[in-house]
């Protein structure tokens, strides 16, 4: 989910609720302790320099059991971060601590925000010799009994 999408969703909600993909809810008294932009520059295993920009939300469970973040308050925090930090309209990554700090994608199921599991991937599969599962084998390259056709 991009930042522009959450900005459109928030005014339609009465409450802000986050849940994990397994259905477990983040405690109602969570705080959004950070909204920022992360700019990552790296080299993949194939030697290609890449950049990645994400908007970062950090969720934290406090001992403040009376606290409930309302949609208008979160929208205000987002607008402050856009104005003061010049944050772009990038994909949102959410940091949330369970056993350790986890990084999640963000989706919306029509009622709640869902912290989606993220996975690692090789960005240079061709350079690493990893076959592309969607690659179509040329019918002329197979020989009977080779196992490729």
SSE topology sketch:
Elements: H1 3-9, E1 18-20, E2 30-43, E3 49-61, H2 71-85, E4 92-97, E5 101-108, E6 113-117, H3 125-128
Parallel strand pairs: 1-6, 3-4
Antiparallel strand pairs: 2-3, 4-5, 5-6
Report on the architecture of this protein.
The protein is 17% helix and 33% strand. With 149 residues, the chain is α/β, with parallel strands linked by helices. The chain has helices spanning 3-9, 71-85, 125-128, and strands spanning 18-20, 30-43, 49-61, 92-97, 101-108, 113-117. It has a 6-stranded mixed sheet with strand order 1-6-5-4-3-2, with helices on one face. A hairpin with a 3-residue loop joins strand 4 (92-97) and strand 5 (101-108). The longest helix is centred in the middle third of the chain and has 15 residues, at 71-85. The model has no long low-confidence stretch (mean pLDDT 88).
> What is the multimeric organization of the chains shown?
single chain
Q: Please tell me how large the radius of gyration is.
A: 21 Å
Overall pLDDT score: 88
**Continuous helix count:** 3
Globally, the shape reads globular
Distance between the termini: 40 Å
**Roughly what fraction of the amino acids lie in strands?**
25-35%
By DSSP, the count of extended strands is 6
Strand order of the largest sheet: 1-6-5-4-3-2
Order of helices and strands: HEEEHEEEH
- Low-pLDDT stretches are none
């Amino acid at each position: 989910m991009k930042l522009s999408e959450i900005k459109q969703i928030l005014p339609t909600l009465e409450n802000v609720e986050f849940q994990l993909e397994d259905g477990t809810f983040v405690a109602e008294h969570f705080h959004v302790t950070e909204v920022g932009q992360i700019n990552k520059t790296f080299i993949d295993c194939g030697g290609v320099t890449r950049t990645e920009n994400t908007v970062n939300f950090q969720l934290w469970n406090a001992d403040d059991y009376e606290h409930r973040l309302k949609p208008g308050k979160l929208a205000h925090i987002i607008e402050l971060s856009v104005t003061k930090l010049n944050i772009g309209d990038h994909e949102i990554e959410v940091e949330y601590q369970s056993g350790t700090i986890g990084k999640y994608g963000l989706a919306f199921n029509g009622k709640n925000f869902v912290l989606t599991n993220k996975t690692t991937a090789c960005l240079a599969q061709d350079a690493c010799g990893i076959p592309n599962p969607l690659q179509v084998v040329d019918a002329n390259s197979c020989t009977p009994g080779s196992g490729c056709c």
